[in-house]
Write a structure and sequence with these properties.
The chain is mostly beta strands. The protein is about 0% helix and about 55% strand. It has no helices and 25 strands. The strands form three sheets. The protein has a 15-stranded mixed beta sheet that branches. The chain has a six-stranded parallel beta sheet with strand order 3-6-9-12-15-17, with no helix packed on it. It is globular, with a radius of gyration of 18 Å. The N terminus is likely disordered.
């Protein structure tokens, strides 16, 4: 729920519908708050796909952002459900607003199926990031100047599936006080090759094909448990590891 001071200040509220937008500037933009409750969106833009100056809240919907500068942006971004696929030339999901002073910037992902293919930071917050549910897959940048995950005040993984591949130079790991175990692995993977995670019995827990090369993997799965053994297979190697704590490097 939004803070009470914002309840009567929605600048844009989308209940549903079908939207095909091809724009030079922001495709969907609000000077205040933005709520998307449902709908189907097919977006191509020269700037942001979905943007609000304050809160961007997505409760549901099928959102395809084929081309954009930044995908989803707000001083706070909250995603609770829906299917989101976005490709950006800069940040994929971003919590920022240079006009606000001392704002508690945050990104909260509590559900949904989210795929980010970003040339800049994959998920970037000027404050905090929390993953609490859903599935978030991030194919991050290939250059070291950006990272798949970037938060000025820390990253918590408290639930859901998180898989982020990207460069090594700017890798940022979740906090050790997360509730769900996270693994950070330095490796090499080639474009269009499979990334597979298995338990010690050989059961596949997660697999994907990365459209781009990468040097690092950050992964958190609900099945991960301290004391158990798992493996990660990339195009270059298979690494078996034991989870010894909430954060295993």
């Amino acid at each position: 729920e939004l803070p009470s001071k914002c309840e009567n200040n929605y600048a844009l509220y989308i209940l549903g519908g079908k939207f095909i937008i091809n724009s030079n500037s922001d495709a969907i933009s609000s000077k205040g708050n933005l709520i998307i409750d449902n709908g189907t969106f097919d977006i191509s833009t020269g700037d942001d796909g979905i943007h609000a100056e304050y809160i961007t809240k997505i409760n549901n919907g099928n959102i395809l952002i084929n081309k954009c500068y930044e995908g989803i942006e707000g001083a706070s971004v909250e995603i609770y459900n829906g299917t989101i696929n976005l490709t950006s030339t800069d940040d994929g999901i971003n919590a920022a607003n240079a006009d606000l002073v001392n704002h508690p910037y945050n990104i909260y992902i509590g559900g949904g199926n989210i795929t980010v293919n970003a040339s800049g930071d994959g998920v970037d917050s000027n404050g905090t990031i929390e993953f609490a549910g859903g599935t978030t897959i991030i194919y991050g940048p290939t250059s070291g100047a950006n990272g798949s995950l970037d938060a000025d005040r820390g990253i918590l993984v408290n639930g859901g599936i998180l898989v982020a591949v990207g460069p090594m130079g700017m890798i940022e790991t979740p906090a050790s006080n997360s509730k769900q175990c996270c693994v950070c692995y330095g490796t090499s993977g080639s474009a269009n090759s499979q990334l597979v995670i298995k338990d010690d019995k050989g059961n596949v827990l997660f697999e994907t094909t990365s459209p781009k090369s990468y040097q690092s993997v950050v992964v958190s799965l609900p099945e991960f448990a301290i004391g158990n053994t798992y493996s990660i297979t990339t195009s270059s190697s298979t690494q078996t590891f034991n989870i010894t704590s909430i954060l295993t490097n």
